[in-house]
Amino acid sequence: MQETVKKVLTGDFNRKKALMFLITALATILVWNLPIDSFGIEGLTVVQQRVIAIFVMAVMLWLTEAIPAWATSVVIIFVLLFFVSDSAFAVMQGSEGEYGKLLDYQGVMACFADPTIILFLGGFVLAIAATKSGLDVLMAKTLIAPFGKRSENVLLGFMLITGIFSMFISNTATAAMMLTFLTPVFKSLPANGKGRVALTMAIPIGANLGGMGTPIGTPPNAFAYKVLNDPAGLNLGIGFGEWMAIMAPMVIIMLFCAWFIIRKMFPFSQKTIELKIDGNISHNWRTIVVGATFFLTILLWVCGKQLGVNANTVAMLPIAVFAFTGVVTASDLKDIDWAVIWMVAGGFALGLAI
To answer: Where do the Citrate transporter-like domain residues begin and end (predicted)?
Structure first.
């Protein structure tokens, strides 16, 4: 942290990012203005060349992190609208048919309200409500209890619980929550032992593996889920439950494999661990509402296809219930990871353009 601050103060950090941004800009301008024949693609239009240039820009900005990932997505949408859409500057559109087919600007803007975005919002709202009501603490205490006090079993418990949570709550939020629960556990472990390393590693590994279990576990899943079910794409009609039926067993197997590897690499010197998960649990009607909504939402996500309701539609259930009952207020919406929403929307816009 001190090294980062030092870099910022001396200007090294900003200069590096500025250099990466300049290189990206030059590469984008170069691809944008290359002779069309140089691509070796028969029938390539001006609009298609511009989309290739925008793709190059997006990839380089995401890889170099010259600007934040969500900001890259905003830039993608801006450039598409102003330079490649049918609402772009007149000089960018050319005469009819001269530059090729322009993007529908409404389609680009609709990426902000793509059904998969609503799916993510539903997951974020569930996480906020669970934390606000203390349901996350109650679930953690209940789920960890069967694993007892044996150190290796506690490690397995944390991995499995983290994996399960991250299937329905953002894997990043799950990791942050579970690391908070681990803080009091560390106090009971030897400072020079490897047990602390094992437990710490269990959280991100469990969150990453568990995140693959459902379409809402992590942003890449949402991209895949959209493409698999897009009527204009593969149109496979894969439901939330079908995804879980394949991925959840695989996740469980990988979690057990990871547990075996971690406990071998970082063996515990202390055989037992005294667990104490601290946190406030609200005992009122709102907690009941959150618990019931949480259960019903997951049930409909798993079985909704048989009832004719898709996962994206189900995601509106917790949003509507928590808004109506006041469980989630306008100020709570600030806790939503809007950067992820913007990043996903930008990815959808780029995919639409390509």
So the answer is: 59-353
Contacts of 142 (CB under 8 A, 6+ apart): none
Type of residue numbered 121: L
User: Considering only CA atoms, which of 71, 40, 43 is closest in space to residue 57?
Assistant: 71
Tell me the C-alpha distance between 161 and 139, whole Å: 9
Instruction: Enumerate the H helices of 84-170 as residue ranges.
Output: 90-93, 105-109, 115-133, 135-144, 151-168
9-25: string of b/e by CB count within 10 Å (b at 16+)? eeeeeeeeeeebeeebe
Q: How far apart are CA 118 and CA 124, in angstroms?
A: 10
What type of residue is 193? G
Q: Which two tokens stand for residue 276?
A: 């104490």
The pTM (predicted TM-score) of the whole model is 0.68
Task: Give the chain's radius of gyration (CA, Å).
Answer: 24
Whether 337 and 172 have beta carbons less than 8 Å apart is answered as yes
Give the 3-state secondary structure of residue 144.
helix
Q: What is the pLDDT along the chain (354 residues), one digit of tens a residue?
A: 455 445 444 455 588 888 989 999 999 999 999 998 888 888 888 889 999 999 999 999 988 888 888 899 999 999 999 999 988 888 888 765 678 888 988 989 888 888 878 887 888 888 888 878 877 777 777 777 788 888 888 889 889 988 988 888 777 777 777 776 776 677 667 767 788 888 889 989 999 999 999 888 887 887 788 888 888 778 888 888 889 999 999 999 999 999 999 989 988 887 887 766 666 666 778 888 888 998 898 888 877 777 888 778 888 998 999 999 988 888 888 888 788 888 888 888 888 888
Q: What one-character DSSP code corresponds to residue 170?
A: -
At 145, list the tokens.
Answer: 């209890």
